[in-house]
Amino acid sequence: MRKVAEKSRADYFKERRKKTKAFNVEIERGKMEEFEKILSEQKKTKKQWLDEKISEELKK
């Protein structure tokens, strides 16, 4: 029974990787903490913010 769950999980992540792509960078800690505070005040996640910025760039 466990193999079925592992296969389902593997299939899920295989499909997920077809639809998404990671974006990972390192930023100076102080700068990122300030940014996270601003996002928290705006009630936005980093993903939401980045999606908005990418959409803005793609519209140009």
Protein architecture, described:
This protein is 77% helix and 0% strand. It contains three helices and no strands. The protein is elongated, with a radius of gyration of 17 Å. The chain starts with a helix and ends with a helix.
Please state the overall shape, judged from the principal axes of the Cα atoms.
elongated
Given helix and strand content, the structural type is: mainly alpha
The total strand number stands at 0
The pLDDT mean sits at 92
Report helical residue fraction: over 70%
Strand content: under 5%
Report on the biggest sheet. Answer: none
The succession of helices and strands, N to C, reads: HHH
Q: Rounded to an integer, what's the Rg over CA atoms?
A: 17 Å
Rounded to the nearest angstrom, the distance between the terminal CA atoms is 51 Å
Ranges where pLDDT stays below 50 over 5 or more residues in a row are none
What's the helix count?
3
